[in-house]
């Protein structure tokens, strides 16, 4: 029980990556590594918005059909056991293809994010360390981990759509399986920004 609470606290504490230039810097850095798995991890994480456990549980057969990357993937979330469908956009597909093209042989029954220590999946703890270490090496200030990928996905959907689609927060709430819109706003760090803007706009 203590371990579960610790993980929840850690997930809530990490931040989304809000700066687009930082995202580009991270992608370029990971792209420069010989093993493209971590690049695929980052790109998929910020483009599909899955929890880390669900992302790392993906099997190759779930995203490939006769060698072609599928448009839509269906999973059952580990935490909620709810059915979740998500689409693979152009960036996600390109990252997957880049990684698969580096493999000598594609095993449809293997995990997409294989551990380098065996045939099992990359663990959440290992993925957390990859993200945290990468951002530290790039001197990107803040508290980041695997949950930052999901938060980054949600944050940028919100800021890119709120002006033209005021109901986007309700859509995000459903996508993230949150109990309320206020929970979603707090989750992606918007509440603090809004409060800060209110204070800064007041000059009596």
UniProtKB/TrEMBL annotation:
Alphabetical keyword list: DNA recombination
GO biological process terms, semicolon-separated: DNA integration; DNA recombination
InterPro entries: DNA_brk_join_enz, Integrase-like_cat_sf, Integrase_catalytic, Tyrosine_recombinase_XerCD
Domain Tyr recombinase: 12-200
Pfam families: Phage_integrase
Keyword match 4Fe-4S: no
One MF annotation (Gene Ontology) recorded for this entry: DNA binding
Gene3D superfamilies tied to this protein: Intergrase catalytic core (1.10.443.10)
The name this protein goes by in its record: Tyrosine recombinase XerD
Name of the coding gene: xerD_2
């Amino acid at each position: 029980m203590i371990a579960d609470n610790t993980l929840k606290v850690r997930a809530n504490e990490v931040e989304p990556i809000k700066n687009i230039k930082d995202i580009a810097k991270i992608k370029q850095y990971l792209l420069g590594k010989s093993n493209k798995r971590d690049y695929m991890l980052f790109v998929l994480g910020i483009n599909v918005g899955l929890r880390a456990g669900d992302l790392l549980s993906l099997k190759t057969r779930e995203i490939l059909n006769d060698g072609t990357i599928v448009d839509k993937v269906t999973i059952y979330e580990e935490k909620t056991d709810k059915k979740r469908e998500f689409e693979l956009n152009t960036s996600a597909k390109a990252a997957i293809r880049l990684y698969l093209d580096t493999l000598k042989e594609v095993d449809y029954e293997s995990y997409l994010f294989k551990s380098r220590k065996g045939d099992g999946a990359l663990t959440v703890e290992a993925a957390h360390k990859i993200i945290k270490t990468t951002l530290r090496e790039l001197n990107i200030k803040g508290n980041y981990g695997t949950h930052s990928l999901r938060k980054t996905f949600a944050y940028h959907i919100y800021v890119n759509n709120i002006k033209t689609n005021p109901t986007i927060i309700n859509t995000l709430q459903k996508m993230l399986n949150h109990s309320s819109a206020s929970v979603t706003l707090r989750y992606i760090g918007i509440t603090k920004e809004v409060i800060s803007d209110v204070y800064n706009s007041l000059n009596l």
